[in-house]
Write a structure and sequence with these properties.
The complex is a heterodimer. By secondary structure, chain A is α+β, with helices and mostly antiparallel strands. Chain A is about 30% helix and about 20% strand. Chain A is globular. By secondary structure, chain B is an alpha+beta fold. The relative contact order of chain B is 0.21. The chains are: A alpha+beta, B alpha+beta.
Chain lengths: ~500, ~325
């Protein structure tokens, strides 16, 4: 492990950085020599000059704003009150224009290839008959929707909103940790963090020359409108949410407001003769495009889980006929399966004839007997993940686990190998965070940019959500596991 | 042979319901030796019936009834021509196993190779396999013929001994069941032998001189296994085995839909709004004919087991919202 064990000599930083330690991981702010990186110079100087208590006051002001806006997240599996303010850190994470250029190009390439892949496996399946991706990975994936075979999707765009998680290796290179192709969340934190930070550090924000992200809502709406069924030039777009008990309900209402569209639940929609309508106070109104934040399984009890009362009976048949568009399409989860992840570089090569601009993290599949042996022998070193899960559930972080946990995971892997993959434990890069007690210390972070896929070209607002593992030494950044967020500044 | 099929399904609700949405898989397939010449589906209360073709080539009709109603009735009428198939040989060479293995490895029929919802391996299934001595020592066709006969002898046909959603273990333990149970058990065994195998839902015309256990008043099910080297151009053939009637399927089996198992192809599948229980009755009549039957003879409806719907209680609602993964 790389956290503190092999920390290079302890160097003395001036206040408020006096507890800042540099280790093996890439640090966003400092060179390994301890000198601030050029693009962090502005904020570094600003922090050195700031009176000691000022940061605390800023933090309190920011907390107040988050609280008043109701920017909360629900953590499941806890007995106490489940609504919590999303933990956030005051200090922006900064990315240079040059670094961003590569990330943007890499994401555009990757998501385009994954979209072509989805189209292929739900139609001819050429990549399967060519043996590039094993059939078994597709057909045994619980997110593969055989009902989607042969179904025409508007413009061939299966993907609309994608959140891809990137981390930085110790040498500073951005690599892809996972893709979220079903219902990626968190974009509301990106937008609200920015609103708050602009208010708290107006001068710093101006001085740094930060690229704006405020147009996300309008870009999303334009992307959705563009998917309108044929003959519906002025489409009615709605956001379909599971309801107020869902962890991301805040985000659903936030985005609906940003776009000026109706926020609906399943019971607000009805399908009659293959057309989807919304119940309004003035009667039924036809719906053309649905930005859905409900899982495939639950979206239509007639076609999928029959016991779902969150969905809309008959929706899938209206969709199949082309009378309504769902974004994202049904069945995209087969392409963000963690076992499929290992094949993404090959998928890019297959469809685009290009090498992947953004690399993957090395991945071992438990379904392969040789790799399984390797995983079982190194459970204390690997991160083991259940392939169908998201949000940091069902995960073993080897170096931070007990012998019992490792044994338990070993058993699970042997019982259901298809369901597990392993990756080396990577020490995510660190960035300065304002910690309790008033100091600034390094914490591990990742980056989730949001891609609005529109075909070969995508709209990617500069930056994304930087997630922080707020606990010292922790590598888990998921908000469902107590991680927090940070504003992300991409410079001009 | 020409057949005229009349399939009546009636749902009676304990109190008025609304927004019924239903899918129907009853139209006989037009493929291979079978042609569906006519199909009509009448729905009461009146509804606009639409259809699509699913990825397995089944025709699926669907409709919705928005207003309040106490009952829902479907009458499906079909005229089908079924040609007598070439005689299926008693046996194929042992080398057929190699062709099966090759097909299996290619993954072309992957969907019909994997365990599916109702056709899962289990300890009880292993026991039966042991007991029947099923293994690859014979050629695949002889083996399947023998297995079909053994299935017939090992189980007692007992209507209502299982429910529509019973796992096969229930029938395996009691050695009693209906066609659907026998079909699922046989599929699980055949896939276990690494022979691609699928579920067929349809109708059977009972001939007096032949063995027949299934109620002629209901829909029927059987299996099809993929056997190489036979059929037109020796390209391989899906051969039907009916473990309920102890026969290889010929021109008295009419195929309505194929799937991995029952879960893919229930004759009706629907949901409605309202706090009501539904009672399902069904009648099926298959007659040899030269033209669509035009008599209006009322069929006697019997309690059906093939599909019903009931609303989900509201208390699951909160939990379900939470289960939605937000990535």
């Amino acid at each position: 492990m790389t956290m503190t064990g092999s920390a290079i000599e302890r160097r003395k930083f001036p206040a408020p950085f006096e507890n800042y330690e540099l280790g093996d991981p890439f640090d966003e702010m400092f060179h390994s020599s301890g000198a601030p990186r050029q693009h962090y110079q502005e904020i570094y100087d600003f922090l050195l000059d700031l009176p000691a208590d000022e940061l605390k006051l800023h933090k309190q002001a920011a907390d107040q704003t988050f609280l008043h806006q109701g920017i909360t997240f629900t953590v499941y599996g806890r007995d106490e009150g489940t609504e919590r303010i999303i933990p956030h850190d005051l200090l922006p994470r900064i990315i240079t224009a040059q670094e961003w250029g590569k990330v943007e190009a890499g994401l555009e390439q990757r998501i385009h290839a994954l979209n072509l892949f989805l189209k292929d496996i739900y139609h001819e399946g050429k990549i399967l008959s060519d043996g590039v991706v094993p059939r078994e990975i597709i057909y045994s994936c619980k997110h593969f929707r055989r009902e989607m075979r042969g179904v025409h999707v508007p413009k061939g765009n299966y993907l609309t909103v994608v959140g891809t998680d990137l981390i930085r290796l110790p040498d500073g290179e951005f690599v892809v940790l996972e893709d979220n192709l079903r219902v990626p969340s968190g974009v509301s934190y990106m937008l609200t963090s920015r609103q708050v930070l602009k208010r708290i550090f107006p001068k710093l924000y101006q001085a740094c020359g930060v690229r704006p992200i405020d147009h996300y809502g309008q870009a999303l709406l334009a992307t959705l409108r563009n998917l309108s069924p044929e003959g519906r030039p002025e489409p009615t777009v709605v956001l379909l949410s599971p309801g107020v008990y869902n962890s991301a309900y805040f985000e659903h209402s936030f985005l609906a407001r940003q776009m000026g569209i109706q926020l609906v639940e399943g019971r607000d929609l009805v399908v009659h003769d293959n057309i989807v309508y919304m119940r309004t106070t003035s009667g039924l109104r036809r719906v053309d495009v649905i930005y859905r934040r409900i899982d495939d399984d639950f979206i239509d009890p007639l076609s999928f889980r029959r016991d779902s009362i969150l969905g809309v009976p008959g929706l899938f048949n209206a969709y199949r006929t082309g009378n309504v568009t769902l974004a994202n399409a049904i069945g995209t989860g087969v392409a963000d399966d963690k076992a499929l992840y290992a094949y993404v570089p090959k998928i890019i090569k297959y469809y685009l004839g290009q090498d992947a601009i953004l690399q993957n993290v090395e991945t071992f599949l438990a379904s392969d007997p040789t790799e399984q042996k390797h995983i079982l022998a190194n459970l204390d070193k690997f991160v083991v993940k259940a392939v169908g899960e998201s949000g940091g559930y069902g995960m073993l972080i080897g170096p931070h686990s007990t012998k019992e946990q490792q044994e338990e995971f070993g058993k699970k892997i042997i019982e259901d190998p298809r369901n597990y993959i392993a990756q080396p434990t990577i020490s995510l890069s660190t960035a300065p965070c304002f910690v309790e007690g008033g100091n600034i210390e390094p914490r591990h972070i990742d980056l989730r940019p949001y891609i609005l896929y529109q075909g070969e070209k995508s709209v990617i607002v500069p930056g994304g959500l930087t997630r922080v593992a707020l606990r010292k030494g922790s590598l888990v950044v998921n908000s469902s596991q107590g991680g927090g967020s940070k504003d992300t500044w991409v410079l001009n | 042979m020409f057949y005229s099929i009349r399939h009546v399904t009636r749902f009676q609700y304990s109190s008025p319901v609304s927004e019924s949405v239903m899918e129907v898989r009853m139209r006989p397939r037009s493929a291979l030796l079978q042609q569906c010449l006519k199909f009509e589906l009448h729905v009461t209360p009146r509804a606009r019936v639409l259809f699509y073709r699913d990825y397995l080539g089944n025709t699926v009709h669907y409709f919705d009834v928005p207003g309040h109603h106490n009952r829902l009735a479907l009458i499906a009428e079909a005229v089908v021509e079924v040609e007598e198939p070439e005689d299926i040989p008693e046996a194929v060479p042992m080398a057929a196993w190699d062709a099966i293995d090759e097909m299996w490895a290619s993954g072309e029929l992957y969907e019909f190779q994997m365990p599916s919802h109702f056709a899962q391996p289990s300890a009880e299934l292993d026991k039966l396999v042991q007991e029947l001595g099923v293994d690859r020592r014979e050629n695949p066709l002889t083996l399947l013929r023998r297995l079909n006969q053994q299935m017939y002898s090992a189980f007692e046909y007992a209507p209502k001994s299982t429910r529509v959603d019973s796992p096969i273990d229930e029938a395996l333990v009691s050695r009693k069941g209906v066609c659907q149970d026998f079909t699922h058990i046989m599929i699980a065994i055949v896939r276990g032998l690494k022979i691609p195998c699928r579920y067929v839902s349809g109708y059977v015309y009972p001939r007096a001189e032949e063995e027949n256990r299934s109620t002629p008043l209901a829909t029927h099910s059987w299996i099809e296994a993929w056997i190489p080297g036979i059929g037109p151009n020796h390209q391989g053939l899906w051969v039907g085995f009916d473990p309920t009637s102890n026969c290889v399927c010929g021109d008295r089996h009419i195929r309505a839909a194929i799937g991995r198992d029952y879960a893919d192809v229930p004759p009706t599948k629907g949901v409605f709004k309202g706090r009501a229980t539904s009672e399902l009755t069904v009648a099926v009549r298959v007659l040899p004919t030269n033209a669509p039957a035009d008599d209006k003879e009322e069929l006697v409806l019997v309690p059906g087991s093939n599909s019903g719907s009931s609303p989900v209680a509201d208390q699951h609602w909160e939990e379900m919202q939470q289960q939605q993964q937000q990535q």
